[in-house]
Amino acid sequence: MLPALPSADSADLTGMAAAPRVQVAFSVPQGEAAPFTHLLWTVRDSPLGRVLLVAGQLNDAKPASPSSYRTAKPLITALHWLDHDGEKAIEEQMDSQQHQHTFAHLQAEQQRWAKGRDTQAPQLEQADERLAPLGRQLFSTLAVEPGPLRLALRGTPFQLRVWKQLLEIPPGETRTYSQLARSLGLKPQSSRAVGTAVGANALAWLIPCHRVGRSDGGLGGYRWGLARKKALLAWEQQHKPQSGGLFG
């Protein structure tokens, strides 16, 4: 279990948006040319632990003028909680673990958005100040930035279908893996493949993979920790009128 994880009714969660407004700006299947020259990143605190936020800078939004480049809005490509191993450790060890997780996630994200085997991957750039408005908008109901959070997705065609279908699950509701398969026009036997695609989601909280569980009522998996998944589900249930069971 995650150490000191806030409960669903904790004051630390009262300012968290139940359903972040998101918009898929575009999706790029693996194997096709990716549009980013830079991947900007920052690490921020959230009500459920520290998160790594990664956002891509579009090619056509990076002209010769550095000032114009700085004003173009990036698109969110990944959001990872950094303490998903859930192991209690002294502060120095936790910092070391989170540094390792950050580096591993950034390397994976850079390779995921590489344009091809023989072309240069997007450059990584720490951009704490530039990504601060997006960071404030992620979890707070008091965000000052208007409009939805704009996402960029990259995966196999099947993964992209699954992730977009996850966005159709309303906040406070849940689906089983077999229900999700049926909503995609697939047979229930495809639920294992669907579950694998759900687990490959790199956008915690924004692509709500936490809203999918097993048909027997179990939570199923969650790459950022089952304790965090349980807290998210409980909090969303409490903020949904006349909520019922989780995975009934």
Q: Termini distance?
A: 24 Å
What summary fits the major beta sheet?
Answer: 4 strands, mixed
Structural class: alpha/beta
- Any idea how many domains? 1
Please give the CATH class: Mainly Alpha
Tell me the series of helices and strands, N- to C-terminal: EEEHEHEHEHEHHEH
Which residue ranges are poorly predicted, with pLDDT under 50 across at least 5 consecutive positions? 1-11, 61-71, 85-93, 243-248
Helix content: 25-40%
The overall strand count is 8
CATH superfamily: Winged helix-like DNA-binding domain superfamily/Winged helix DNA-binding domain
Average pLDDT value?
79
Question: What is the 3D form?
Answer: globular
Cα-based radius of gyration, to the nearest Å: 18 Å
CATH fold descriptor: Arc Repressor Mutant, subunit A
Q: What strand order characterises the main sheet? A: 4-3-2-5
Strand content is: 15-25%
Describe the overall structure.
This protein has about 250 residues and is of the alpha/beta class. The chain has a single domain, classed as Winged helix-like DNA-binding domain superfamily/Winged helix DNA-binding domain (Arc Repressor Mutant, subunit A, Orthogonal Bundle), CATH 1.10.10.10. It is built from 7 helices and 8 strands, in the order E-E-E-H-E-H-E-H-E-H-E-H-H-E-H. It has helices spanning about 65-70, 90-110, 130-140, 155-165, 175-185, 190-200, 225-240; strands spanning about 20-30, 35-45, 50-60, 75-80, 125, 150-155, 175, 210-215. It has a 4-stranded mixed β-sheet, covered by helices on one side. Strands 1-6 form a two-stranded parallel ribbon. A hairpin with a 6-residue loop joins strand 2 (about 35-45) and strand 3 (about 50-60). Helix 5 (about 175-185) packs across helix 6 (about 190-200). The longest helix has 22 residues, at about 90-110. The model is unreliable at about 1-10, about 60-70, about 85-95 and about 245-248 (pLDDT under 50).
